[in-house]
Amino acid sequence: MSFTKELFVAVSEFLIFTSFIVLLYVLRFYYDYFTRSASYPGPFPLPIIGNLHQYYYHQHDIPHWLHQLSLKYGDIFELYFGTNKYLMVSDVRIVERIMTSKKDSNYFVRVATKTGLDDLQRGSVAILYNANFHSWSYVRKVFFRVVGSANALRAAATLVNTVFGNLEKLWDNLIKERGQCLDSKQERSVEVDLVCWSKRVFAEIIMLLTAGQQPNLLSNYYDRIIGDNIQKNADEDFLDRFSIASDCVQYYITVPPVIRNIPIIRRYTKYLHNNLMWTRNYACNLVKERRKEIKNLGIGEKSASNVLNILLPSNGIPNENDKISLTDEEIGDNIVEMFSEGIDSPSNTLAFIIHCVGANPDVERSIIQEIKNVFGDLTDLVITYEDLNKLVYIEAVIKEVLRLRPATLTISRFSAHRDQFDGYEIPSSTQIAINVVGLHRNQNYWNEPENFNPSRFLEDNIGKNYNKNAFMYFGGGLRVCPAKQFAMVQLKMMVVLLYSKYTFEVTTKDPSTNYNVNLQCKELMTRIKHRR
Ligand code: HEM
């Protein structure tokens, strides 16, 4: 037999063998699919990729896709991310059952750690994906000390004031230097991308809160706009890498290892992974430096109350029963998580607030009226934490924005055991995703859900207009966002400070969303000028 013939036979045998394996895999996949217990409706999945192809096809508008799916398949349906099946839930009875605050909850774990998270060594560290109750509750206590108590919130309000002061100086200079007079009143205005500024504001706040240091992101960004130097500096590089690092975790959770390791895709996997490692090293170095600083403190000198100092074992939480000694790497992971959670959600929300208010002049008028009612004047406001509780209309606006543009489109939970109630069955080890969009736009729970109407959240209407389990803006139960009050303090303060000093004319028609399950405002071009 000639060499070519031998090669032909070998290749054919290889192809037949591979096709046979693939066929077996496909048969097995569909056998499992058609014989699964507790089957719910949902789009038909493909082997290996599940419904990922549909997910990526709709990546420009995931909220719309999720909403359409819940209209088509109802308040509980199945969706496959790769080989992982997710039970998408937007029925308040099931949400109430899952989002319980009981310590022995069947739904404590957020996502199964066995593949993606374990590959990243994230299954039992920090807070967001921590499946170990003991170490998770320790970190929650640290969070409470820094962003939960009234004293912590008062201190946080001071941080917001400081960072806003920096922003104001830069914007005032920008209007002076680059402003154009486009209206008959000859007032200067300048066009900015609010997303870029908003992101930097919250990044500076979270850096101060977490590590007690300010990365000068606002002034560096200003220098890049105003100067000829278009290079990003190290601090801005850090900000970009943190966004990529959170994408990396989502990617590892949703994309199965077999796809992540396909040669062309492996390059992308490596790129995400390298960024995650970069952020881990960055945070780990912060820990090491802080350890040295604490060692060098004089007698009687106390380190500041920020997350990093509290997490360092020598400064640990003052409760003997909690004794947990975290390694530098684990403390670093906590810091990375605070950055990734503490920047995007509030900054996207603020950008969406400006967008929604821009399209509703009546709402803007009511905001201004409330600021005048509470503070008496729009100039030289001194905002205290106590004043913030009086801002009921502004709070309603923030809630309405978070209803229509929730920071997280789905909230994950994993069932430890089989659960059965109200005719529903949830098998053990089921990955559940609360379909936040499906809930927040559900006609059964909201009047005219597509309309932007902050009044639905005013005191008089509460209880009449909505069911609290249909409103998962900060999640719920044991794992509710631990920074809920802190986030509201930041957002209320930013709304008061921004609207009392500036007017905004939004030029971006639709701030498009990004491709992952966290809702992103990509760009918000806006003309800003001083409010007279
Ligand atoms: C507008 C601002 C924010 C929104 C809308 C928001 C929303 C959420 C939501 C929906 C969850 C999931 C809760 C659940 O699973 O039930 C969550 C969790 C979390 N958030 Fe926030 N968040 C915001 C700001 C922040 C900030 C500023 C921080 C940090 C300082 C933060 C830290 C966290 C952490 C650590 C978790 C995980 C909690 C756990 O698993 O126990 N969030 N957030």
From TrEMBL:
Superkingdom to which the source organism belongs: Eukaryota
InterPro entries on file: Cyt_P450, Cyt_P450_CS, Cyt_P450_E_grp-I, Cyt_P450_sf
GO molecular function, one term: monooxygenase activity
Entry annotated with the keyword Zinc: no
Positions bound to heme: C481
Co-factor requirement: heme
Keywords recorded for this protein, A-Z: Heme, Iron, Membrane, Metal-binding, Monooxygenase, Oxidoreductase, Transmembrane, Transmembrane helix
Transmembrane regions: 7-31
Keyword DNA damage: no
PANTHER family: THROMBOXANE-A SYNTHASE
Family, per entry: Belongs to the cytochrome P450 family.
Identification of the protein by name: 8599_t:CDS:1
Source organism of this protein record: Paraglomus brasilianum
Source organism phylogeny: Eukaryota, Fungi, Fungi incertae sedis, Mucoromycota, Glomeromycotina
